[in-house]
Specification:
This protein has about 325 residues and is of the alpha+beta class. The protein contains twelve helices and five strands. It is elongated, with a radius of gyration of 39 Å.
């Protein structure tokens, strides 16, 4: 009889909530299986009367409600720790309902767990556009670009209207641009790190050589009682200096130096290293138009930078 009263109250609650309440209360007083259903009915009546249904839903849970939507509704507004068990209970009560699975994914902090839950949610409800959008986002974050493209396409296909489909497409384009920009930034940081490591290695090697030279010079001075050796060889005789007149065709900007590509009169391109590019004021890349240049350089090849020498003096025309 109590169950029949609840069914009749459910049928008229939208038309006469106040009258339906009597049937719901009868179910509560009867106890047993109808107790939770009675509280659920009072929550429905409260919605029609613009009241607060949540206390009745909480009573329904305490009475052992078997309705998954009740647990989801009560979880709204709670902390993550309090809401998560309610979403899990709802998923257990109705394994074919995607919403509690999706809500669990929103609370997951581990990316792999979030991705697994979202994949389960879209399997249960393939027409939920927001599920596909969130899945595409986490797949992008996880570096699964191909899978993310597929999820974006499914999100567009699941859109209910042309306007919504256009909006999803714009989100897709924006996400792809962010992904490509992030990948380019990562490659740029990697290149800069390599250049910085090369520079530090060169500076360390130069410091070691200078220290060795100073030690050797100090030993020579000590052996000569502080007098300079008479047969000292000038540096420019050890490393010959050359003059070059040609056309500056390109400037490769490195971390703290520039590599100049200069075509001589015969058309041969000679790469030279400019250790202090700030004084020259050159722009990076191909020089348009190419500029005439006269310079002097120390003919000391550098295998690391693939240059034929270091620029000592330079004059641009």
């Amino acid at each position: 009889d109590a169950m029949a009263e609840i069914y009749l109250a459910d049928a008229e609650v939208a038309v006469n909530p106040a009258q339906a309440e009597a049937g719901f209360k009868a179910g509560i007083e009867a106890g047993g299986a109808t107790r939770a259903m009675g509280y659920e009915g009072l929550a429905t009546a409260a919605r029609f009367e613009k009241g607060n249904p949540k206390p009745y839903l909480e009573d329904a849970i305490r009475a052992g409600s078997k309705s998954a939507p009740v647990y989801v509704a009560v979880a709204d507004g709670l902390t993550d720790d309090d809401a998560l068990p309610l979403f899990k209970k709802a998923a257990q009560l109705n394994p074919l309902w995607a919403e509690p699975i999706y809500r669990q994914a929103q609370l997951a902090s581990d990316p792999k767990e979030k991705e697994t839950l979202l994949k389960k949610a879209v399997q249960l409800d393939a027409r939920a556009t927001e599920y596909w959008i969130e899945l595409a986002g986490i797949e992008t974050t996880q570096g699964e670009a191909t899978a993310a493209q597929g999820s974006w396409l499914r999100a567009e296909n699941s859109a209910a209207t042309d306007a919504e489909r256009k909006h999803v497409h714009q989100l897709h384009v924006g996400s792809e641009k962010e992904r490509l920009d992030a990948a380019e930034d990562a490659r740029r940081r990697e290149r800069e790190a390599v250049h910085l490591a090369d520079e530090r290695a060169q500076e360390s090697e130069a410091d070691r050589i200078r220290a060795a030279e100073e030690k050797a010079n100090a030993a020579k001075d000590a052996a000569a009682d502080g007098k300079q050796p008479e047969a000292a060889v000038p540096w420019n005789q050890v490393v010959p200096q050359k003059k070059l007149t040609g056309t500056l065709v390109q400037v490769d900007c490195l971390a703290s130096t520039d590599r100049l590509l200069i075509a001589d009169r015969s058309g041969t391109t000679i790469p030279l290293l400019l250790s202090d590019p700030s004084q020259a004021g050159l722009s990076c890349g191909p020089q348009k138009p190419a500029r005439r240049v006269s310079l002097t350089y120390a003919a000391e090849p550098d295998d690391r930078f693939h240059t034929s020498g270091n620029v000592l003096t330079m004059r641009l025309q």
